[in-house]
């Protein structure tokens, strides 16, 4: 044999956005599966808790969210998860956030606070380890621009 | 212990559902990711509990309230349900979460 190929370490395919997470600590007792929407909601709520976060989502999802909230039965459940994408694996989760900040907040400090709060909330509530929280600041909200319909200056940053 | 026979399984599923929904941190039962966790009873469908045959695990789909960490609640549920089923494995799917303020799906 002239060449030795290193044995490829077969990684289990990392689960996509919609696939569930399994907590690895259960064995013969049974499995625990946490749906991605659970992580999404917890991360969205934790990010909104930080004052200085005006709203969440890219321009498109904010526009749809505004329409959906006016439809009876459209539900407010989507309001918590706008602007939150998650990837969940066996033991870990990664979170991507799109946020709109209030004018006057230090974006660096705000992002740090959001990241800390999201990591704490998700790790405590789900038991998953959060490996990264990517924050995209999409827009800045000026105090006097409340009632006008906001023109989304930035389109959705990513297409998945 | 004994594996529940087909005749007693439906009532067992109902008893499990009653125990699970009486936990303070459980908002309601949930049909799982694909809505397939259910027991077919005469005249109705009990969503959220499936008792397997033989050594198949018991499956449980729940929506939890976000007032306690999920692993803690799941451990409680697994202990309670496993005890009712003679120590069978219990697969728990946390399909969604609800805020403590809005326990029902019809908020607003």
TrEMBL record, chain A:
Top-level taxonomic group: Bacteria
Annotated Low complexity bias: 1-20
Region (Disordered): 1-30
Pfam family, one: Asp23
InterPro entries: Asp23
Family membership: Belongs to the asp23 family.
Name this protein carries in UniProt: Asp23/Gls24 family envelope stress response protein
From TrEMBL, chain B:
UniProt name for this protein: Alkaline shock family protein YloU
